[in-house]
Amino acid sequence: MRIKYPYIRGKLWQLWDAAKKQYESPVEAWASIVEDPEKAAIYKSARGHGGMVRVHRAEALELISAMLLYTIKTYGPDRLAGFTPIPAMSMMSYASGARFISLLGGEMLSFYDWYADLPPASPQIWGEQTDVPESADWYNSQYIMMWGSNVPLTRTPDAHFMTEARYHGAKIVAVSPDYAENVKFADNWLAPKPGTDAALAQGMTHVILNEFYQERHEQQFIDYVKQYTDLPFLITLQPSDANPEDFASGRFVRITDIAADAVENGEWKPVLFDGNQGKFVVPNGTIGQRWEDGQPWNLEMKDQNGAEIDPDLSIDADVDVTIDFPTFDNQGNGVLKRHVPAKKMTFMDGSEHYVTTVFDLMMSQYGIKREADDSLAATGYDDVQSCYTPAWQETVTGVKASLVVQVAREFAQNALDTGGKTMVIMGAGINHWFNSDMTYRSIINNLMLCGCEGVSGGGWAHYVGQEKLRPQEGWSTIAFANDWQKGGARQQNGTSFFYFASDQWKYDELDNKALKSPVTKTKHVYDHAADYNQLAIRLGWLPSYPQFDRSSLSFTDKYHTTDLGEISKHVVAELKAGDLHFAAENPDANQNQPKGLFIWRSNLFTSSGKGQEYFMKHLLGAENGLLAKTNDRQKPEEMIWNDETITGKLDLVIDMDFRMVATPMYSDVILPAATWYEKEDLSSTDMHPYIHPFNAAVSPMWESKSDWQQFKALAKTVSNMAKKYYAEPQYDLKTQPLGHDSKAEIAQPMGVIKDWKKGEIDCTPGQTMPSLSLIKRDYTQVYDKFIALGPNARGKVGGEGYTYDVSTEYDELKDILGTFDRGLNEGCPKLDVDKNVCDAILHLSSTSNGHVAAKAWQNAETITGQKLQDISAGRREDQMSFKSITVQPAEAIPTPIFTSAKHDGDRYSPFTVNIERKVPFRTLTGRQQFYLDHEIFQEYGETLANYKPTLPPQVMGPADVAITPDSNELTLRYMTPHGKWNIHTMYYDNLEMLTLFRGGPNVWLSPVDADKAGIKDNDWLEIYNRNGVVTARAVVSHRMPEGSMYMYHAQDMQIQEPLSTITGNRGGSHNAPTQIHVKPTQMVGGYGQLSYAFNYYGPIGNQRDLYVNVRKLKKVNWNED
Amino acid sequence: MWFNNVETKPGVGYPKRWEDEGHYKGGWELNSKGKLQLRAGNKLNKVGLGKIFYNPDMPELDDYYEPWTYDYQTLFGPEKKHQPVARAKSQITGQTMDLKTGPNWDDDLAGSPEYFKQDPNMAKIETDIKANFEQAFMMYLPRLCEHCLNAPCVASCPSGAMYKRDEDGIVLVDQERCRGWRFCMTGCPYKKVYFNWKTNKAEKCTFCYPRIEEGEPTVCSETCVGRIRYIGAMLYDADRVEAAAETPEEDKLYEAQLDLFLDPNDPEVIEQALADGVNEEMIEAAQRSPIYRMAVEEKIAFPLHPEYRTMPMVWYIPPLSPIMNYFEGRDSIKDPEMIFPGIDEMRIPVDYLASLLTGGNLEAIKNALYKLAMMRLYMRAQTSGKDFDVEKLDRVNLTEGTATSLYRLLAIAKYEDRFVIPKSHKEQVEDAQSEQGGLGYDECEGCSLAPQHGSMFKKAEAGESTNQIYAESFYGGIWRD
């Protein structure tokens, strides 16, 4: 299994060898192969079939370099991409390739959103990617729900805290559709039907609002939501599009609506009613104040003039009006009528509006009876007809209403008794769905209502894709080459990239009409998700690389200037005239395709290749099992449709790995990677607060190298080749979306879409479209820059809106690491060996250098006007070095770039800095948001959390390949939860692990379903839908619910996978029957917390709303010819 | 070989249905005179009656499994019509295999329509449990050598190769004396002695005795991520073991075994122990023993299948489990005691646990579960500042003090509290003076890359270099062959 040597695909090697003899220039030799369709097809169609030949490293590097220079020259550097996940686990390995690709001008693809591990609800509610308690904080909880998170299976090292918390007196509740491993140590097991979890949470919300807010007026809860959430803020009521006489909820009221005088950033200052002064005020801490100079930005209960405030949770109503809420179920979309208290206001423009508060809207939505004669409220918990009651949720989830009432009461009462120590551990089980943000928001609503967020032992605890890279400033400086070219790195959201590049958009059968609210109709409406992505690209919400339909290096030549202002004018004009297009509008065009892809630390094509067969067919041109046909009945409006089938878009796939799994088997060049026992690196996680080193126990075996050394060697080859074939410096025009935590997050006010393409507003870079910048690239210098910490690092670093100077630290690094003494990088600290890079990362970061932490808190104090420096004061002298953490791993120093005020032995717990220290959340209101008022959220009925059913069942589409079903074929829900004997594909090839469970691919189903199809335990099955086919053996177990099948995640296709009788080809991995569906609400940008940041926000590559047909595999054919 | 495995219960385990002593004839039974005899027949029987060449009760290959490996090298091979795959190949025959069984085949209730009913405990209990979704439950049973007080493997060995050490009770195989008769495998009702086909010797868990001698815990205990394993010393009266094991009623055997243990704080016990040559460190360790605390004082830990009359010495705390559907949804706000499931409301039937751990003694299991549940309620009251009627602790033989210390032992579970192991007295076994500065490896005939590791040994014999073997077998710290 171990990859010991460099390999190149045999067929490609033959072509390359011949071309090199023919052409003196390797760049021309490469062109002669890839631009000849016949030659290209020869090696691309051989991908995955074996036949790799061993080569010398220099030969492999020469080939890669020729591809790089040819692609950059011909198509532009943004046709090169890199994929590697989860930098926290081995920071330097991630940084190595990212730095190399960033120096070239290629794009790094994000993984957290692509994996669907990113919970979009987190940026939506908190403006925060994900911040969670370390597992030791479970012990501080007194009520823990494990919701879609199988703790002993996927958090094995941490699971003992759960057992211990239980002995400590915590009640444990497991929510899982199957009798999962974690259910064993729960007190209650709730088994909702898969994907209905939001309804369960909403049944709880109903009970909490009714008993703890309406009946008991619990002051502890009320005080919390007044200060730390948007519940007291005012929302306009607008006419309902379902019933003209009714209302629907609209947008936040801003100070500009009601103030006579101009207010700075007034459109970004939402208002509430202050009971103290008896007037509408803007409280401290909104996003408007965040970007207002000289204005302290905090959550003190004061208004902008310093007056003490006491917000009214409920509106001082003039009248109760009838309001329509959208509802969604398997029958279709409905309208729910309720009453809501409202007040009539006259805005400055003379218009009259009813307004209410977010709190009143929620009480109304949940049907809480506030007036005895309210005929539209729920009549009780047993009111089945009234949405969101416990009885209603039972009809959706199948969980007993009485149990939901019990759990809701305990949940809230515990929070009351313990000051918020109620926790929900949540994860992939509920996050990998199309509507997972609705589920998460519904659950988090309960935690916010009970004052649990920002409390040690309480709040959400989301654990999927352990993403907490603690020494962040130093790492990101190096990984994205900001030390040489600040802001020069391209950072592409992975989901959109793969959606377009693997052509899944052309097969997308999801008609968005069915997903929308009947209550609010908006102007910018599309039926196809891809159209929303185009909208997001051109308005600067999401990035889009490959960038334009021409090379990003071509603009200075074309416009004969290197003046960015001039270039911007031309670009705007060309865009408006339709002469210049974003590449994503026509992803099938040759010049718009990604050409080169680097993969390292990842098994992309199977383990994380949602829609594996689309990858195989369109990106790779390899043998595949795709059964779907393109959906030309419903084409996007804003894209060019190409009837031709484009296969094998990628010219060269380079993979670095140490194990022969599917991705290297389907790559063209394999470089042998060092394992984590053969190199130095850094590791951190959200599960504990320590920063760990990796040290080489042995030298890298055979010809393997650490990733840093691998990319360093490549940088040298490519720089040398550039001296001969591409010596002139180039100017790279780079687009950049409107970024979160920059002033661009207040670029597009009021949550209203203004589309320049439709002439609704001017096309202004950085405002109504992506910003533009010009980056100078010199391909002869890539190596010199790669190995040295560039002079820009002697300046400011930061994160989350904070910045601080690290010039001193940069100068210290010169002493610590030594400097180069000649050439371009003269005087720069050396990054030529792995340990140096680790030391540079540690020295420049606030979590690992007490001096930097002090400066970071100082900056935070300046911005917030709150006392904060004491948080890290006790750690001031701590300076971690690679050696010091090798002696003993150290706890990260608390820093404002994360949200825990942990110090003095506290456990890491998120948002404590917001709650205890009154630092605002980075959202529109500066508070945790129950309500999102952007136009697209209104269109989709998701302003408030809502129950939305899973996507409609579909196995084969009407135009797909016709499959004759077997007589007793089953249709089952198909889910791919994380497995017990592997970590993704890691160890799935390992004899011990495979011996521990059944030795090859398997799927789990219930005896009830198995009986229906005559399936016995260990039978071979064929599992298919339009996306592909996988063969696997049956595991029949009564711990599985009827109607669902599990194929545990990342069972790769190179172990024991027979041929499919349907396709005649090798069955795929667990991802063969998957595809992604992208959700338009997650593309919104330029609007407060709904603004892009890399790996932080964007549509998720969800793959769970899927069904398969299951039949017995008639003939087990291995065909090993 | 799987010295130390974890099985899902209900399930058949490894080797399959090892608890079916009617079939495997492991452990002891009482003869017509009420005296202990090995179920499979005693030593004399074997030698005298010439049955030594005939041992029909041993598990067969299929009861374990046919070991396999994969043809990984195919993946680096020549170009093929379809993507190459590594297929399973038998480690015995080298032929491709259609996998039908393995050592953990019924993991997590896998294949339950078939395996659930085959769990031998199912036949012994009265509760009517069906393998359906609504009634689903499962638990994990870690299994290793029980280092029994009345070890049937020792009694079974015709060669006298198996022995129980005086100083620490560890049961070992003398590799020099073992002649490979394998009656120990039959004698052990837990099936925790294995046969090494390379050396033709019996092998078993050594309880990491070299570590124990140094006062360090076994590797499995130290590395247990669940922190569930504890080790401590116990003083017992060896002279009374036989009588205890001859207790007629199966459901009294657990209590009979408890009676053997001596109170390490009792002055008379201490005096006698010292007189018998037990060193002071051992006595102090017994006084601080977490096992004594849990098994004898609090009675929350139990031996596995005491009805085998082996007096096993690995102790298990029975698991709490979720409430059954039927009892869900009551008002725990008005009555906070209802927040946790009642003992009789839990999914794992008490009689199932009793079948595993007490030879059918239901009361003992219930009392343990009550105690654990009461401790949780007490701690919950402490942590949430609620009133608690401490008299309720009395009902389960706890006080505020003992409830807190028991909680501490189970939940805080410091390393020093989990492992109380006295170092051995070296002067009793060697000349400490002359051993000073000795290397300790002089006699070692292969302190290199695990030469006993079967397949590697084979490869080495076939002329492969160590480097090559390493190459094929190692990445990322995980052994494979």
Topology diagram in text:
The complex is a heterodimer of chains A (1121) and B (481).
Chain A: E1 7-9, H1 10-22, H2 26-34, H3 37-44, E2 52-54, H4 57-74, E3 80-83, H5 91-104, E4 107-109, H6 121-126, E5 143-147, H7 151-154, H8 159-167, E6 171-175, E7 188-190, H9 197-215, H10 219-228, E8 234-239, E9 247-252, H11 255-258, E10 272-274, E11 279-281, H12 287-290, E12 319-329, E13 332-346, E14 352-357, H13 358-365, H14 390-397, H15 401-418, E15 422-426, H16 428-431, H17 436-449, E16 459-462, H18 472-479, E17 490-492, H19 494-501, H20 504-507, H21 529-538, H22 555-559, H23 564-577, E18 596-600, H24 612-620, E19 652-657, H25 662-665, E20 669-672, E21 681-683, E22 690-694, H26 707-725, E23 730-736, E24 771-777, H27 782-786, E25 796-799, E26 802-805, H28 807-817, H29 834-843, H30 850-864, H31 870-873, H32 882-887, E27 890-891, H33 912-917, H34 935-939, E28 970-975, H35 991-996, E29 1002-1005, H36 1007-1012, E30 1020-1025, E31 1028-1036, E32 1044-1046, E33 1107-1112
Helix pairs in contact in A: 1-2, 1-3, 2-4, 4-26, 5-18, 5-26, 9-14, 9-15, 9-17, 14-15, 18-29, 28-29
Chain B: E1 5-9, H1 21-24, E2 28-30, E3 36-38, H2 43-48, E4 68-70, E5 88-90, H3 112-115, E6 139-143, H4 152-156, E7 162-164, E8 171-173, H5 183-187, E9 193-196, E10 201-204, H6 209-213, H7 219-222, E11 231-232, H8 241-245, H9 253-260, H10 267-275, H11 280-287, H12 290-297, E12 302-303, E13 315-316, H13 350-357, H14 362-383, H15 391-395, H16 400-412, H17 415-418, E14 419-420, H18 432-435, H19 454-461, H20 466-473, E15 474-475, E16 478-479
GO molecular function, one term (chain A): 4 iron, 4 sulfur cluster binding
Domain Molybdopterin oxidoreductase (chain A): 2-716
GO biological process, one term (chain A): nitrate assimilation
